[in-house]
Design goal:
Branched-chain amino acid transport system ATP-binding protein; disordered C terminus; amino-acid transport; single chain; ATP binding; ATP-binding; P-loop_NTPase
Length: 258
């Protein structure tokens, strides 16, 4: 469904991504982990059209999309939930959610249908419709951010650290929503600093370091890799015959706060 091949990208003449190869199959959840500065969020910016790649290819269903405007990327069914501070605090929950339907605003019937669908999937949109977004908890704000992007009924959702700043209750709620979206057929690509949470949610795991993909494979195999367990999860695990290890990372990395 989504493929990045030898992507180089960065800011101000410097390259953060040093030739990234990454694939997401349809109806999967792929989690990208790695130390701060590895280029995880930059990958999402390249996919969403906020940053044009200097080299390499980004394809959706085989078509080149790298470097195309964000509006065109949205129309192709790719929506991103930013890392934080993505809501308008003085606007109501419903007003924030309706902002997600900007591209379909002229079709009032479709806009109402999408809003009804989002209310059913995320009850907070109906329950807190008139409340100012600035009065919500961290977990509630994340739910509304996800609800807003669902107004375009995306095929692929990009989530940038959805667990950031959430308490255990908020984490559980967001994890449940991600799982339900995927079960309904939405493909998910998320970046996470909470390695344990991210890889437990995912079907596939990707480890980045120094602007490159160092390890990729089934999420369980990535999570159980001895080096990943040592760096990020506080201990080592052993391979079993049922879970052969993916390729080694190939180099030291500084762990983020898990």
């Amino acid at each position: 469904m989504l493929q990045l091949k030898a992507v180089v990208a960065g800011y101000g003449g410097g390259s953060v991504l040093q030739g990234v190869d990454l694939e997401c199959a349809e109806r999967t959840i792929t989690c990208v982990v790695g130390p701060n500065g590895a280029g995880k969020s930059t990958v999402l910016r390249v996919i969403s059209g906020l940053l044009a790649p200097a080299e390499g290819e980004v394809r959706m269903d085989g078509e080149l999309i790298g470097g195309r405007p964000p509006g065109e990327i949205l129309r192709r069914g790719i929506a991103q939930v930013p890392q934080s501070h993505a809501l308008f605090p003085a606007m109501s929950v419903q007003e924030n959610v309706l902002m997600g339907g900007y591209l379909i605003r002229r079709d009032k019937r479709l806009l109402r249908e999408r809003l009804d669908q989002v209310r059913q999937r995320l009850p907070i949109v109906a329950e807190r419709a008139r409340d100012h977004a600035g009065n919500l908890s961290g977990g509630q704000r994340r739910m509304v951010e996800i609800a807003r992007c669902l107004m375009l009924d995306p095929r692929l959702i990009l989530l940038d650290e959805p667990s950031l700043g959430l308490d255990p209750r908020g984490l559980a709620g967001v994890a449940e929503v991600i799982h339900e979206l995927n079960q309904a057929g939405t493909t998910v690509l998320l970046v996470e600093q909470n390695v344990r949470l991210g890889l437990s949610l995912a079907t596939h795991g990707v480890v980045m370091e120094g602007g490159r993909v160092r390890l990729a494979g089934p999420a369980a195999a990535v999570r159980d890799n001895p080096e990943i367990a040592s760096l990020y999860l506080g201990g080592e695990t052993r391979w079993t015959s049922e879970s052969p290890p993916p390729s080694p990372i190939g180099g030291p990395a500084s762990p983020p706060t898990a």
